[in-house]
Design a protein that fits this description.
By secondary structure, this protein is α/β, with parallel strands linked by helices. It is built from 13 helices and eleven strands.
Length: 364
């Protein structure tokens, strides 16, 4: 029987490795580094583990796995140990299990808390084992879901760009998502079929069918509804949207980096940006520069409302006072927009700032 799904997953891993590291030379027998598969035991990550176990040695890499036990279910330790056993049977080595504590809060829900704990554990294991890359099993379906969630948040092109196929995590360490941008597409159906073809028994995470989670509702209700009402191919179209938005965002990022080097300077108590230079830019660049300064220098993520309020100091200057946004006080001083770190709550906050803070809390 032709194992088309298994071949598709192997091809995706091979292409991702070659895009990142180049093809191995015919006479190159040295190990090019350790790859670690982020393994849960579900169909997506198990298919990735099987593909990496087959493909990595042929590309002159060694491959292992990290299983993160979030401890969110009563049998999570059993599930983690079973996933680790399957990884060893596939020939992956080393295989480690990391148990983490997930602490949700009002500002950070259980999904975000689990993701943060998972990536911290993966990065820690990778550093300890000397790995050069972590492979995660996000599929084209995950990409479509992520784009819809970005649309719902209304958070701009960067959010619509979805899950990047590559993400730098640390010096010399990257996260690669071979299935996200694979052609032909690797979907959830593909990974399930690949597991079947390889004789692997995948774990069904009960949280993947729990409607309490927003992503589950998108997956099980919203996307199927769109497919029924708009016709097949919606998930693929959303994934293409992510590809296009990511290309645009990367181009904007390069332009912004160049601009910032020219127009940003250190002020006595913070950062100053030339108002004239900001005014000379189109709104898309002007707003991105404002957000980049806030995030890079102060660790503050500005909402659309915050950004427009600051931009008004440039485009609609009529002598208005300071703008208070999370963690920053912004004022126009002469021909410059000055950003200053704010300690504590602002003493004065107008209606616009109040609305901005409410919107920011909702987006987070």
């Amino acid at each position: 029987m032709l194992q088309t799904a298994l071949l598709a997953t192997r091809r995706a891993v091979r292409e991702a490795l070659r895009a990142e590291y180049g093809a191995a030379g015919p006479g190159d027998g040295a190990d090019r580094g350790l790859l670690l598969v982020a393994l849960s035991g579900g169909a997506d990550s198990l298919a990735l583990a099987a593909a990496a176990a087959f493909t990595a040695p042929r590309e002159r890499f060694s491959a292992g796995a990290v299983v993160v036990d979030h401890g969110l279910q009563t049998d999570s330790a059993v599930v983690a140990d079973r996933a680790a056993d399957q990884a060893r049977q596939l020939g992956l080595a080393p295989v480690v299990v990391r148990r983490v504590a997930v602490s949700a809060s009002a500002a950070r829900g259980p999904e975000a808390a689990a993701r943060e704990a998972r990536y911290a554990a993966l990065a820690s294991a990778a550093r300890e084992l000397g790995a050069i890359a972590i492979l995660t099993a996000h599929t084209r379906d995950d990409q479509a879901e992520q784009v819809l969630l970005g649309v719902a948040r209304g958070s701009g092109a960067r959010s619509l760009a979805g899950i990047p196929p590559r993400r730098a995590l640390d010096t010399g360490l990257v996260a690669l998502r071979p299935f996200v941008g694979a052609e032909p597409a690797v979907t959830r159906a593909t990974t399930e079929a690949a597991c079947h073809e390889a004789g692997l028994d995948a774990w069904e995470d009960p949280q993947n069918s729990d409607p309490a989670y927003t992503r589950v509702r998108v997956r099980n209700t919203v996307l199927p509804l769109l497919e029924r009402e708009l016709g097949p191919g919606v998930a693929a179209a959303l994934a293409r949207t992510a590809d296009l938005a990511r290309e645009d965002a990367e181009a904007f990022d390069a332009m912004i980096t160049e601009q910032i080097e020219e127009i940003v300077e250190h002020a006595e108590a913070g950062i100053a940006v030339s108002a004239g230079a900001l005014a000379a830019n189109p709104a898309a660049l002007r707003h991105r520069i404002i957000r980049r300064v806030a995030e890079a220098e102060f660790g503050s993520e500005l909402s659309r409302e915050h950004t427009l309020a600051i931009a008004a100091l440039v485009t609609h200057w009529r002598g208005q006072g300071t703008i208070e946004v999370p963690g920053i006080t912004v004022a126009r001083v002469g021909g410059r927009i000055e950003f200053t770190r704010r300690v504590g709550s602002p003493r004065r906050s107008g209606p616009r700032a109040d609305v901005a803070d409410d919107l920011s809390a909702m987006e987070e």
